[in-house]
Amino acid sequence: MMKIDKYDVDTRLFYDAREHYWVKIEGNKARIGMSPLIQETSGAFVAVQMNGAGKTFARGESFGSIEAEKHVGPLKAPLSGKIIKINQAVVENPRLINYDPYNEGWLLEMELTNAENEVLDLIIGEENIVEWFKNELKKFEDKGWIAQ
Amino acid sequence: MTTFRYINEHNTTASYGLAADEYLMQYHQSGKAPYATTLRLYNYKDYAVLAGRFQDLAAEIDVEACNRKGFEVGRRLTGGGAILMGSGQLGICLATSAQTYPWEHISELYLLFAQPVIDALLKLGINASFRGKNDLEVNGKKIAGLGVHVDASGAIQFHTSLLVELDTSQMLEVLKIPIQKYADKKKIASIEQRITTINREIGHPVSMQEVTQLVKESFAEAFEATFHHRPFQAAEKHAIQKLEQSRYLTEAWLFQNSPQKDMTGMSLKKTPAGLMRTYIGLKGEVIKSVLITGDFFEQAELFTQIETELKWAPLDKKVIDRAVEKVFAASPSLASAIGLVPVVVSEAIWLAAQRAMAAERYTYKGSCYYPKIEHNNPQLVEN
Predict the structure, then answer these.
(1) pLDDT grade, residue B299 (50/70/90)?
(2) What's the pLDDT at B185?
(3) Quick check: A93 and B146 CB within 8 A?
(4) Residues B84 and B6 reside in one and the same domain
(5) Single residue among B254, B271, B292 that ends a domain in this structure
(6) What domain count does chain B have?
(7) Of B231, B254, B277, which residue sits at a domain end?
(8) Residues B296 and B250 in one domain
(9) Topology of A2-142 in CATH?
């Protein structure tokens, strides 16, 4: 875990730059959660709805929706695959995403169907992740998107 | 110059009004609709009582009272709290797509699309500004609620409920806001200290038609747009009816269960300024609303600022402490006039939250940081 500003960032994981997910890949399976930056800029998560385990999603397809403050938006799959597990604790208590994004606040697990190609679009490696995170942080601060 | 599709409707039913907004999102899903943006200005027939996307409808709305009064109930696609909509409230739905208005952070959409609403109010002599991300306020009182829904295809729906007028007593009869649960003769006054309307601000009634025209003009100016008035066509009305039948009129949609428990609580506290009543509404471990009333109405602004800070905030003692301290520090004259220290207020809020959770036998799972409240304070009064 690396400290960047006040954020603990796990640099051993993959990151989806657009949606700000972290992705932990083991074999053909992945556990997915939200980066500590996006969960802060969104404010408190009020509700999370995820479609049932067993369904298959292409990358970018919506596997559920999330409400933070009064914004309702989609949760888009960072990689293609079948959902094999949903974190019910997060469905019941979405604040876990805010409090513990890498551990108790994970969202779901997928069995990947096109990882070898799609993973190339994710950010990996400590140096790259630190650079991306710092740039994102600066952008978010400059634009006033960090929740005060 | 761009051309918006413009739709103006009156006296819609709850299910039709909501389904029409969703239809417009679908219309803009591909980003290839004949018009890149649609502005729909409308109002519901008296009354539609609408819950937010993930709310537990029965916890937010007194459905029995609605049935008795002939009010319709509905569930929106957008988030936020339950609202009363009727002939005195203007619904503003702007539907478009990320292809037309690319965005990175949701706050950009709020800023972009709420500005014409602020401009329209200014034309009436009302100086409105953002309160948090999601409301517009005038002198600390809410005048409009904002909401955004985006979907995976990039379609965007920005929605505003603009209060031209409001029957507060009707609202209190059908919305289960925490203050409603407790006897408080001053509750209408308390609500009216926090919510205002166009008519109240300008001191005389203005017609819905005039407000609608001003809002339309302001969107035209802000986006350098012309409008093509194109009401829903027959095939579109059919699609809207199908959405009403498949979603908005179904019990499965209306009464879907929320995994987060809705809880309300109150604390009473004797303070040098008088008796302070603090009401709180929780959705799981998120604060839906806080309302602080008491014998110190001239200082209500201080409390409405605290209430605004805490709306949709995580339920966390540290967050409550910070919010209260921040408001006290920002308004030293109001704070010193009331003769309270921040910790008294934050303890009252936390106590109300604890009582809300205790009443539902809910075990707090949140932050590991939540110090115990000192219950030996002689100023504390038990409910």
Answers:
(1) low
(2) 65
(3) no
(4) yes
(5) B254
(6) 2
(7) B254
(8) no
(9) OB fold (Dihydrolipoamide Acetyltransferase, E2P) (2.40.50)
Interatomic CA distance for residues B221 and B313, integer angstroms = 35
Contact B260 A94 (CB under 8 A): yes
In eight-state DSSP terms, residue B244 is: I
Residue pair A111/A29 in contact by the 8 Å Cβ criterion? yes
Distance from CA of B295 to the nearest CA of A (A): 31
With CA atoms as reference, the chain B residue closest to A38 would be B105
Residue B201 and residue B138 in contact, taking contact as beta carbons nearer than 8 Å: yes
Inter-chain CB proximity A47 and B133 less than 8 Å: no
Cβ-defined contact of A69 to B79 (cutoff 8 Å): yes
Q: What's the pTM?
A: 0.88
Q: Please tell me whether residues B228 and B320 are part of one structural domain.
A: no
| Same-domain status, B43 and B155 | yes
- Parallel/antiparallel/unpaired status of strands B155-163 and B262-271: unpaired
Binning pLDDT at 50, 70 and 90, where does residue A31 land?
Answer: very high
3 state DSSP class of B332: helix
Q: Nearest C-alpha of chain A: how many angstroms from B198?
A: 23
Return left, alpha or beta for A147; rule: phi > 0 is left, psi -120 to 50 is alpha, else beta: beta
Contacts of A60 in chain B (CB under 8 A): 152
Kindly state the helix (H) or strand (E) to which residue A82 belongs, with its residue range: strand A81-86
**How much is the mean pLDDT over chain B?**
89
Sorted by where each begins, the domain ranges of chain A are 2-142
B334: domain CATH number? 3.30.390.50
Q: Residue B176 is part of which domain span? A: 2-254
As given in the structure block, the two tokens for residue A51 are 């479609």
Is A59 part of the contact surface with chain B (CB cutoff 8 Å)?
A: no
